[in-house]
Amino acid sequence: MRQREIFYKFPHALQLLSFIAICIGCLLLSSSIATLLALLAGGPDNLSGTASLLFIQGFSTIGGFLIPALWLDRMKKAGNADFLHVRQRVEPISLLCGLAFLILASPVVSALQEWGQSWELSPALEAFFSQRTRQSEAILDQLLHVDSWGTFLMSFLIIAVTAGVCEEFLFRGGLQNLLQEWFAGRHLSSPLKSRRTGSSPNMTERSASPHAAVWIAAIVFSAVHIDIAGFLPRCLLGAILGYAYFYSESIWVPVILHIANNGFSCLIEFCYYKGYSKLDPDLLNQSLGLEWTIVGIAGLAFFSIFIFRYQKLKKETA
Question: What is the pTM of this model?
């Protein structure tokens, strides 16, 4: 019997632990291979060069994020032919709603970013996170503060496109889906229950409340970036992407939104560095004030109610 014909029958906790183990192993292995190949190609002196950094980051992101998600999709095929929801058609209304949420959330994200920067940590934690933040900012500056559009497009491909695809496949398609199945399984403990309700297990899992799975996946998504000041804003963005994935039932909706979010930041940074724009990217991380934050929160609340009502009406008329 094939491994995938057994895996989907494992308890959800065991599936989740197996997925986490594969993720850690793939990330360590891909990072090591990428660094080794960069050393062989350019030597130690070129390891910190822009080309080497782009190669290492791209190779590590694909190997550590995308490969585990595709492995999970293959293991789950016996129970769900499209576990990641790759084949689902992207509806324009889903993308427009997702973009609206990202725009409405921008003043809230800025306020959370500013609040996070004011947190007081222990000296040891402060030193750890400060060093990590400086390293990340230095690498990002090196990849975006370039002289040619060709190099920028390569950076855009890695930072926006590759990261958007691979991270969404892992955190939304993989982690969020597994958590959603696990939590739904607590309410649907046996096939007998699904027969009583007249629905299939997969249908019940998708219709179960997504909130716990969405927010846990968003917290993990934010935590792996190891950025204490950006933890809450990145968590909010992760939740928006998670809800976009759940309600659209297509992995490509959060992928496109993720690429748009990262790509916009990259373009603003590059254009300011080259002098094409006078909009300072640092201003985007500053709070717009209490009034705009309240407007953003109110907009998110009202728009969320509208989407909930729309989805409910859609199900009732289907």
Answer: 0.89
